[in-house]
Amino acid sequence: MPLLTDPAAIAGLVVREVRTGSRDGAPTRIVIARRTYATDQADLWDALTDPERIPRWFLPVSGELKVGGRFQTEGNAGGVVQECDEPRRFAITWEMGPQVSWVTVTLTVDADNTVLELAHEAPIVPEFWDQYGPGAVGVGWDLALMALGLHVATGAAVDPAEGMTFPTTPEGLVFVEAAARGWADAAIADSDDPAAAHESAQRTITFYTVEPEADPES
């Protein structure tokens, strides 16, 4: 991961929003991240949907990237492509074991730039939300959008190993702290209790930035 001279400023490129919703009669929370990229809509769409480019900033992906097709990201979630309106919008399910949520990505032209909006909607699991808040998924997407920005700006691939360890570096800690606190502020704007939201953000920061202790028997 290239050295970020101002990781807090990079985290600040994302506009964060949290909404309360419902799907099939069940309550949901929707985490929304928006970031502007200095590239055209076609290039950003290609970076998001070309299976040869996706691993350069995210994870290797297998399966069929077409409507109705099932995909799997390496070591992470899989799902089904539900909608595709090239080069403006796609929608997928985001499945990890029995947990199913929904991700929609929309690209909007803004002069010579492109605005990406990512909305991740998930059923409310009270104990999970109470513990981590929106940062549980939001910070992960922040890291992905940062890597996407580095790739779009340079054309280079982001080393997956460096991406995994980045949050534990000094620059990564600053980035994660800024992102998690931004998600807490967004949750508060959606009526979450401020004290609880900031406590959840701190737990999210710890989750991402504290390396697990080594097993003494390993």
Question: What features would you describe in this structure?
Answer:
With 218 residues, the protein is of the alpha+beta class. It has a single domain (7-206), classed as START domain (Alpha-D-Glucose-1,6-Bisphosphate, Chain A, domain 4). 38% of the residues lie in helices and 31% in strands. The protein is built from 7 helices and 8 strands; from the N terminus they run αββαββββββααααα. The chain has helices at 7-11, 41-49, 126-132, 135-154, 160-165, 170-189, 194-209; strands at 15-23, 26-37, 61-63, 70-73, 78-85, 89-96, 99-110, 113-123. It has an 8-stranded antiparallel beta sheet with strand order 1-2-8-7-6-5-4-3, covered by helices on one side. Helix 3 (126-132) packs across helix 7 (194-209). The radius of gyration is 17 Å and the shape is globular. The protein starts with 6 loop residues before the first helix and ends in a 9-residue tail after the last helix. The model has no long low-confidence stretch (mean pLDDT 92).
Concise description?
The chain is of the alpha+beta class and 218 residues long.
Uncertain segments: none
- Overall body shape: globular
**Sheet with most strands: strand arrangement:** 1-2-8-7-6-5-4-3
Terminal-residue CA separation: 28 Å
CATH names the topology as: Alpha-D-Glucose-1,6-Bisphosphate, Chain A, domain 4
Q: Which radius of gyration do the C-alpha atoms yield?
A: 17 Å
- Report the β-strand fraction as a percent range: 25-35%
Tally of discrete structural domains: 1
- The helix/strand series, from N terminus to C terminus, equals HEEHEEEEEEHHHHH
Main beta sheet:
8 strands, antiparallel
Q: Please provide the count of β strands.
A: 8
What is the SS-derived class? alpha+beta
In round numbers, the mean pLDDT is 92
Query: Briefly, what CATH class?
Result: Alpha Beta
The CATH homologous superfamily corresponds to START domain
